Amino acid sequence: MRGWVATLLAGTMMLALASEPASAQQPRISSEAWAAYKAKFLDPSGRIVDNGNGNISHSEGQGYGLLLAYLAASPADFEQIWYFTRTELLLRNDGLAVWKWDPSATPHATDANNASDGDILIAYALALAGSAWNRTEYITAATRMAQSTLSETIVEFAGRTLLMPGADGFSGADRDDGPVINPSYWVYEALPVMAALAPSDRWQKLADDGLSLLKAMQFGPRKLPAEWVSLKRQPQPAEGFDIEFGYNAIRIPLYLARGGVTDRALLARLKEGMTANGVPATIDLTTGQPKTELSDPGYEIVNHVVACVLDGTKLPAEALQFAPAYYYPSTLQLLGLAYVGEKHPECL
Fold this sequence. Notes:
This protein is an alpha+beta fold. It has a domain at about 25-150: Glycosyltransferase, CATH 1.50.10.10. The protein is about 45% helix and about 10% strand. The protein has helices at about 30-40, 60-70, 75-90, 115-130, 135-150, 190-195, 200-215, 250-260, 265-275, 295-310, 315-320, 325-345; strands at about 5-10, 15, 55-60, 100, 110, 155, 160-165, 180, 230, 235, 245, 275, 280-285, 290-295. Strands 11, 12, 13 and 14 form a four-stranded antiparallel β-sheet that branches. Strands 3-4-5 form a three-stranded antiparallel β-sheet. A three-stranded antiparallel β-sheet has the order 8-9-10, with no helix packed on it. α2 (about 60-70) runs parallel beside α4 (about 115-130) and α10 (about 295-310) packs parallel to α12 (about 325-345). The radius of gyration is 19 Å and the shape is globular. It starts with 6 loop residues before the first strand and ends in a 5-residue tail after the last helix.
């Protein structure tokens, strides 16, 4: 599984990621779609606003914003988002980002713990942009975050290599049912890039064990993974969390597809299990009943991407129309459209 990266060039600082001058880079996201996304979610300060979550910002959103700015071939917007990220979130002494920034609180950083998916997204986007645009300072920053992610949040337990959701609060020392993971934090496409930045065979083990765990996590009538999973014994929904396939989990099939994982049985099981009345939904794993049906095109595109990958099904016309309403599904829609446009144009 090589995702978007080909080989390591000189040392651990430079990547061969189909590099091209910024002026020649082919955008994977249209200028119109990116302009609409920016107008809705990008504050002039450079923060991505989660308007479905009290207008806070978080490391995940900054990472997504950086990745989308790269895919839109917009170095100026990338730098704007990166400025906010490095000045407002990179406050920890271990090289990782604080996960939450609240405009209504003082200080704005209201939780100093990190979120590992946000750190991976930020480092991944920095590496891609640094390579494509010859910005060595981006590669340097990406390298530090990759090294910190490896040392602070990737652990070995019972023969598996795991990604802790944060540096604190999820291990066996922190919780009676620990370690606890979130399977939606595995950003599969980024892991080969992280391995190039911070060389270790643990990245490949992390990818392999993430997939094996997804195959094993078949909870309830719909055989879906839980949002939060205890691995103390066999995988089971973690204590203290809703026993559900939740909003974060919706992105798992998209992450698999973008990471080059085309396991038909796994993708088909996830697609079927997370669908109710023709649209994705959050699912009560105990009963198998849908909790909230998610008809935003950004959620629906996940199923359309899976159908494209598995059967070559064309995306419906409504999936191609981008009218952003909420940060999270709008982000998923642009990631889905960028992926299909580059890897499966026959589905457009």
